[in-house]
## 1
Amino acid sequence: MPPHPEWTAAMFPDEVWEHVFSFLPSDADRNVAAASCHAWLRIERRSRRRVFVGNCYAVAPAVAVARFPEARAVEVKGKPHFADFDLVPGDWGGGADEWVAAMAEGWPQLEELRFKRMVVSDDCLEVIARSFRNFRVLGLAFCEGFSTAGLAAVAANCRNLRVLDLQENVIEDNCSHWLSHFPESFTSLVHLNIACLPGEVNVPVLERLVSRCTNLKTLKLNHAVPLEKLVILLRKAPQLVDLGTGRFSGEHHLDLYSKLESAFTGYKSLKSLSGTWEAVPAYLPAVYSVCEGLTSLNLSYATTQNPELIKLVSRCKSLQRLWVMDFIEDDGLAAVASSCKLLQELRVFPSDPYGPQPVSLTERGLVAISAGCPMLHSVLYFCNQMTNAALIAIALNRPNLTRFRLCIIEPQTPDYLTLQPLDAGFSAIVESCKDLRRLSVSGLLTDRVFKSIGAYADRLEMLSVAFAGDSDAGLHYILSGCKSLRKLEIRDCPFGDKPLLANAAKLETMRSLWMSSCSLTLGACKLLARKMPRLNVEIIDERRGASWDSRPDDCPVEKLYVYRTVAGPRSDTPSCVWTV
Amino acid sequence: MSPHLEHDYIGLSEVSSAAAGAGAGEGLKETELRLGLPGSESPERNEKVGVTLELLPKGFVSGAKRGFADAIDGSGKWVFSTGAGSEKEVGKKGGVAYGEHLGGGGGKEAAGQEKKAQAAKGSENDGAVAPAAKAQVVGWPPIRSYRKNTMAVNPLKNKEDGEAKQGPGCLYVKVSMDGAPYLRKVDLKTYKNYKDLSSSLEKMFSGFTIGQYGSHGIPNRDGLSESRLMDLLNGSEYVLTYEDKDGDWMLVGDVPWEMFTDSCRRLRIMKGSDAIGLAPRAMEKCKNRN
């Protein structure tokens, strides 16, 4: 009979247990350990260094900070994923102020801070800049609410900053010389990503910064840096591993091409290349010398087309990650399938989603990749047509898929050969790919596909559904199955109150549920909220009309966001949100 | 795996009544759930349930109540068993049909209406799956605004031929030449390729060329202008450049003709000594292409 944990805990000093817990691979494992007895709870929480908060409203900032007093790194996520597609009102929430205040108070030793989809003000940045002596990493992804003035404060005060990673944020440019705020004595930068910066960049200042930060490994420039300036910067930092080139176009100089080519030839360590290329084909061969060593290539903002695009990508024999526009076409993907045998992740974005469909990118390209790239496990693919046969082939070729997101651009598009729904195809995917963690479905789909998903997708953590299903059964299949489901987001499906209420308990095992343009009513939301006190049931109503208190139970609910929380209803709801 | 799938398929197709549900053993459970409490669903909904899980014979679209109107065509490939022409059925599922039921979502209804309109247009396309122009549904396809905004700045290639191109029937751009006292205008749409353009420019600016050359002391060859300008252009005395949509000055000849006409705003014949010059390779490629 195993000894009781309380006794075992007493056998060793705390430091030993902390050391043991440091081997636990995930937060989930640490949570389980912490739940087994008070002693382990105490030891674990005092030793946790990395804190991950998947939903900023799931716990009160002060509570999280107090629970893990020795945290050194934290990541907090805010808005629901569908905020990326303008489905969430701008003032919905996700403000970072309370988090930053609590961290400044309780975590003076904090070294790393990452926010995703949150509203971060310049005030937040100022507090961050002044509160953490040992601050090293600032990552802001898909955030908004701040300006280059805030960045100036960070530059001026964070003496040991290693990483400044700004990924696709909306930033106001009111302090164009913010880079000058890095003192001359500042040399610690390892990672600088300013690709999303809207304004001009002071290139001489950047040059000096790059020169003195000799450990710089990642440099991602914005659109304002033309080719001539890029060449200068490249020469200052030949040790780069990850380069974002910015626009990759500019005025013509006599020997610009040869300068560019020789700059790239010097890049022995380059592994990752990206940029918003408006590259004229003439300049592309300048980067050929680095292609062989590249493991990551992001041309998803580049207007480069075939044949130059194929020529470039085919040379990248070591490629593990490829993000590209549909300009690559089926031919290009066939070339990738035969050249890039180490490919793990493919994303293909649409160049002209609202226009007519001239691009020859079809299901054939994806099938070719699935057949030719044995290590492929992550796919994001926008296209106009699909067949069940193609999906079945992909499923059989690649049972190792972990992420599969297919977006057939026109909603409810059936198999174009048989005119059947794509149920069989997606069913094959979930049945074959046992480790599938993320799935987005599209095209014409009936409830049957959800039956398969519910039954087979045991490891599925995130599911996105749009314009699919026939009835409540669809949602019921999902919620009553999908053992590992954490996030579910649904739009424009005929799913109603019943499956939601029948599976209310399931919602507490998940991080969040989003449902918009479905068939929900106020009455059901009220019932759900009453039944499940540890869920926040938010009705989002952009028309901000009469109070929801006074509306009848059969009043339809256009947007619903439900998430588990230990913090109770939030106090910062705007007028468009009503917590039931 | 596949045997199970097939069985499911077969099991469903043999079912003639909706009440039998999705699979052999689970019919009862699903029936309960699907039909739900009487009176709590709209009449519309009950209609739909009747068609829902029935797998119609090949050639029919299941869930026909969605009313994919643009697929109605003479060949009868897609058929709607309920209310094919009714206002409520046509249009995207979350749009008109549900918009009316939900009594709101003005924006959504508008989107639904738009989709109806262009879906009707699409029906003339002989069963084509996608209509010519898409109505824009909020947040669909799921592309982040950052990506949309970034791509809006970059010129995109139009692969279709000239006649299918949208836009006005002519494309006049100013042409300036260094040293010439006044500018000219040309209609880019009247040319098919760079060769046409350059020979036209030769003719237009020959007078000035001769003049410049004359002032440097090199004898004129009277009447001859075309080949002189061509010589000059090819000999790098002059460089033909253009300003694109972004305001950048580019060398003429790098990009395919269609892309050039899409993005060209004005032309400038620069003196070689003023132009900072070209990379030899780029120059060569330009020559070869022409």
## 2
Amino acid sequence: RVSSDGKPTKFQPPPKPVIVSKQKQRDERRFLSPEFIPPRGRTDPLKYYMERKDMIQRRKVFNIPEFYVGSILAVTTADPYANDKVNRFVGICIQRGGKGLGATFILRNVIEDQGVEICYELYSPRIQAIEVLKLEKRLDDNLMYLRDALPEYSTFDMNMKPVSLSDHEEVPVNKLQVRMKPKPWSKRWERPKFNIKGIKFELPEEKMKAAQKWSKPWLEFDMMREYDTSKIEEKIWKEVSEALRK
Amino acid sequence: MMPLWTKSGKKHAVTLLKVQDCHVLKYISKEESGGKRAQLLVGGKNASPFYKSESETEIFREAGVPRKQKVSMFNVTDDAILKPGTPLYAAHFRPGQFVDVTAKTIGKGFQGVMKRWGFKGQPASHGQTKTHRRPGAISTNKASKVYRGKKMPGKMGNIYRTSHGLKVWRINTKHDIIYVNGSVPGHTNCLVKVRDSKLPTYRDFNKNPPFPTYFADGDEELPEDLYDEEVFQFTEPSVTY
């Protein structure tokens, strides 16, 4: 072969193939729903075991997909007062709360200029289907600040088509910084207590510095607040994945 | 406490009660107790047999049973007498029955009149001098004394209270757990006395209970979970209207 300036090109060896085994990919992508992890407390672990059995039983009959705060979901519930007896709602998940069977998630959408938030129970028998239209994570665990953000960040089309993930390796993190409506807000989101990374604060520098007055830098070193869930998660993951595989 | 859904889609809050090592300890006849009915002493939850006086351990030794943490008395009719030493299980109750649950409430210590009796107190400002949570007047002028039982500050909680007429939704025979509607007095993992309801509305509600009790070595084989008819079991598909 001759290159553009007449000299013979140096032999380039082909790139080495990177073999990523599918088993390893699937192992790396394990997701344990946060309501399985028991909270800290003095309750008998037998109570959490009984709850987990019921939760696994419900998951065998009805598929609850993996989703995070910031993903867009469509939920159909049975409604005795609707025409078709079903009610479909599309929205972005702003919060996942509760542990065990009472786990809930809040979906937010803006319909005809009116912000609507609906809190659904994951294990309620009235839910007919949960589809994930767009699976993604955001910079925060709690998107309550969308109430004070411009309505364009909370509007989603009711007839949105599901977006399938091409790579089955990592869940994409949307590093969107949201612009807010003018103050007053429902909560003072600039304070370090909320630790929000997903807002583009357009406040003057003195206000941001004044907000740091309420910071509690000793909290991250407080040993009494530590709750290491890694071992508990391992055990519960094994139990749940074995039970669901049967 | 856990949520529980019925077939119509309604949610109820449910308390889990575990029947842990319950045995009948002693039979006290009508003449001995001096009452109208015979009594049965029942004990629950094994505890250490040491550091206790002879008279206390005597009852457990005669019944052939380790020392129990809680001992309570039940008034029984003559046809429901059990032999001391028989174990009692959660299957003694069936879903659909109504039950009274007695326990010691959470102790709050010495509490003021606003928390203990729900008094309104006084305003926070507008000239109040050192008086915001006090009881105010305790009697009238004409009485010239304070009546017995006047609500005043004192030790609150740690007394026996009963929640009446609680429905039993579900029974787990493998782990001996009773799922009872609503809340129950006492803190988590406290010892509790469960009795058939004495309310007049539920007097004829217990249809064919296991009488005198459920015997584990008997002939009937119960499934692991017993549900009430209205309970939504998670093996069924979602509710539709």
